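can u pls check wat happens w/ PPS
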Amino acid sequence: MPSLVVDNNRRKETGTGSVVGKRTENNARADLVSRLLPRLPPWVDIESDYDEPSVRTSSRDLLNKEIDAYRGVEDRGEMRGEGQRAPEPGAMSSFSNDLGSKKLPQAIIIGVKKGGTRALLEFLRVHPDIRAVGAEPHFFDRNYENGLEWYRELMPKTLEGQITMEKTPSYFVTREAPARISVMSRDTKLIVVVRDPITRAISDYTQTLSKNPDIPTFESLTFKNRTTGLIDTSWSAIQIGIYAKHLDNWLQYFPMDQILFVSGERLISDPAGELGRVQDFLGLKRIITDKHFYFNQTKGFPCLKKAEGSSKPHCLGKTKGRTHPNIHPEVVQRLRDFYRPFNMKFYQMTGHNFGWD
Ligand SMILES: Nc1ncnc2c1ncn2[C@@H]1O[C@H](COP(=O)(O)OS(=O)(=O)O)[C@@H](OP(=O)(O)O)[C@H]1O
């Protein structure tokens, strides 16, 4: 494994001007930056700013309010949680929503942030043998103290033979998550959607930028020292992409054959192919095929011809597929060099060349 040198005592910005007001302004900016763009030592849980709603409360009522409030705004089309649809009298599909029981998930999409996790979950929900919770429960990182019963309550009801799923992309970089999931069940199937770590970092940055337009440039956050080209590995956008290191932690608790790696790039170029692998991994009949997808030219992504529980075409919302800022090719090259040894190690560990180098 390549060594990872992390300088946690990052040099503080010191203003040269003697004007107090300027220093205060600089300090305020530094505060804002550190709040929005956490620089963390390795293995500290990264509380990232996700597009998707997440569960942050121990109160069931509050939780429902939060999800409902969210559903009302941003990602209405992406969130088709159980109980959300108005019952259609006589329709077996809505009738069956009331049957069955809530079970702990047998399969979890554990990462990675900005890898394509929402697309994968929404595509999988088309399968009649998969039921998934729409919001990110964040149980194994933020809400663990609420207990397994709380977690189970969040799940949709399933019938015999159906698989319960959830997705929370921050699990992959949460040190405690593998042990906690293995305590729930050592048989849990784990799915990781991985994407070129450089594009992933830019996507992550783009998301933060869309909410906070005043943050520094990607370039200035990437380097500790632009002249020497030293990368700031304590910036979460960089750190999340060191997949080999995070995977090592999971392998202390789960065998490799219980983890499936989905290519975020192929999920876009060949969604049916990747979905075929996922259905095999979950032991399900290959029901989701290329017949379910069409390429939407305007969106620039594959979309569903018919979403789960609907007869209408469905693309993910506008928070997916944002335009990325142009990053100077020299910076991208430096990042290529930085990630190469970690990527190689990751290819070796997974037995799969993802073609990022
Ligand atoms: N079919 C389809 N439609 C839209 N977007 C798609 C699709 N497949 C993959 N992607 C890529 O998913 C990226 C967002 O990843 P996540 O859903 O994992 O993001 S998050 O961590 O939940 O915020 C998102 O990243 P950005 O393009 O940077 O926005 C997309 O590139």
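The pocket of PPS is lined by residues 50-52, 113-119, 169, 203, 206, 267-268, 301-302, 316, 320-322 (CB under 6 Å).
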